[in-house]
Design a protein that fits this description.
Layout lengths: L1 H8 L1 E3 L1 H19 L6 H21 L5 E6 L4 E2 L4 E9 L5 E7 L11 E6 L4 E8 L5 E5 L2 E6 L5 E7 L3 E6 L2 H12 L19 E7 L11 H7 L3 E6 L5 E7 L7 E2 L2 E2 H18 L3 E7 L3 E8 L4 H11 L9 H11 L5 E5 L5 H17 L1 E7 L2 H8 L5 H26 L3 E5 L4 H14 L4
Organism: Mucilaginibacter corticis
Pfam families: DUF58
Protein name: DUF58 domain-containing protein
């Protein structure tokens, strides 16, 4: 009984079968008007019935006519296109048409994940597709369902492959690897990272090398020049083992979404990329998260496991719904960071009054550390301010949008007035802008 239920549950009639039966019905109708058709309608019916039986026999004569399996990474990267694949194998002795449904997590809100392909006898194929998650967390993948049609195409058999699995979505480690490879090969300028001209040099000696035009003539090593007979110059490297901390605001101001991703996720992705570049520059990377109460605290270090430790912490962070306690942040920084460091504070301000509430504590932090405040440009308001107004309501909307955009610039000027560096960035350009500023600070030896 159970086998019979399974048989009916996985058997589907195709459009080709309904078309054939419709033609058969038409034959029977015409028989009333044209008796000379004789037994042709009945003969057509039995031919169709016979083909249905043959088709069912072809599809059901084996229990494993096809095989399918999902190929997925161990974890997905947030806000990146992650490559997945479905391996499918035809074990029939004839060509088949295959339709595949992969039950992807509900977070993607996709109802049309359908792949159609043809397979020759014993052929295998890998069908690739991409998914772009926009929220960290755990994503439940369901089963793979394969719908098979023989060359007759009158019925379809469904195969169900149980492959339920849970994949975690981590902060954007694909972007991190991309910037890491470019930093190692000195090709960061390909993604918009500027080359900063170093003014002077640090005190960390690197090597003695041949002089080339453009080198600082003040660094010429006259003793080495006399020994070699060629102009030799001292080469210096950037100072190492400097402490770089990313402080991430988890309060309600970071809940705002842009292109499906919250500001908190943009800040987390940028922090991960920046701290990875800092480790490649042989600096020490640390992390602090804050809201109305203290979050995660990872002291600065440059051990090989430091980045994985930061990644695991950032994976679990979520926005909260109260305002940030800047006094608590100040006390945390004073208690954790024991030497002058670069502190990059990712937050968001929508008005000057919001900044003024926190400015006293920012000024205190800036007395002991080099503070860089990173906040976001509202791209939607910018679009509204650039649109042409056609009526009174449009003029009012445009004026308000321009006012808020102007407030953002006032916030940056106010921070600069108190000796606090700032970055006003669109969410999309956050990675590039923060890395540029970090390299600029390193080159000018401000830490």
């Amino acid at each position: 009984m159970k086998k019979l239920q399974t048989f009916y549950a996985n058997l589907f009639l195709t459009g080709r079968l309904f078309a054939a039966l419709s033609c058969c019905v038409v034959f029977f109708v015409l028989l009333f008007f044209f008796p000379w058709l004789g037994i042709l309608p009945e003969l057509a019916f039995w031919v169709i019935a016979t083909l249905i039986i043959v088709d069912i026999f072809l599809l059901y004569r084996t229990n494993s006519g096809v095989f399918a399996k999902r190929h997925a990474p161990e974890r997905l990267s947030n806000n990146d296109e992650n490559d997945l694949g479905i391996y499918v194998e035809n074990r029939y002795s004839f060509a088949i048409n295959v339709g595949i449904i992969d039950e992807i997590p509900f977070q993607f809100q996709k109802r049309d994940v359908w792949f159609n392909t043809n397979l020759t006898p014993r052929q295998t194929k890998l069908i690739n597709y991409v998914l772009r998650p926009v929220k960290r967390g755990e994503y439940d993948f369901g089963d793979i369902r394969v719908y098979v049609k023989s060359p007759l195409g009158l019925v379809t058999r469904r195969y169900n492959f149980a492959q339920a699995e849970i994949l975690p979505v981590y902060p954007s480690f694909l972007q991190m690897r991309k910037y890491e490879l470019m930093a190692i090969s000195n090709r960061l300028n390909e993604v918009g990272i500027k080359k900063i001209r170093r003014l002077g040099h640090s005190l960390e000696f690197d090597q003695v090398k041949n002089y080339v035009p453009g080198d600082d003539y003040r660094a010429i090593n006259w003793k080495a020049t006399a020994r070699q007979g060629n102009l030799m110059t001292n080469s210096y490297t950037e100072e190492k083992s400097q402490h770089v901390y990313c402080v991430i605001d988890k309060s309600r101001v970071m809940k705002m979404p842009f292109e499906g991703l919250s500001l908190l996720d943009y800040a987390i992705n940028a922090s991960l990329v920046l701290l990875n570049v800092a480790l490649l520059k042989e600096d020490k990377a640390g992390l602090i998260t804050i809201s109305e109460k203290k979050g995660a605290v990872i002291p600065a270090d440059r051990r090989p496991t430091q980045l994985n430790k930061i990644l695991e912490v950032l994976h679990k962070e979520k926005t909260r719904y109260l305002e940030t306690n800047l006094e608590l942040l100040y006390n945390t920084i004073r208690g954790v960071i024991k030497q002058r460091s670069l502190v990059i504070f990712f937050t968001n301000y929508e008005s000057v009054s919001a900044l003024n509430r926190q400015l006293p504590y920012l000024k205190r932090i800036a007395k002991f550390h080099l503070l860089l405040v990173v906040f976001f440009e509202n791209t939607e308001l910018k679009k509204l301010s650039e649109e042409h107004a056609t009526d009174v309501e449009g003029i009012y909307t445009k004026t308000i949008a321009e006012k808020f955009a102007y407030d953002k610039k006032l916030i940056a000027k106010e921070l600069t007035k108190h000796g606090i560096q700032s970055i006003l960035s669109t969410p999309q350009n956050l990675n590039v802008n923060t890395i540029n500023r970090y390299l600029e600070i390193k080159a000018k030896q401000k830490i």
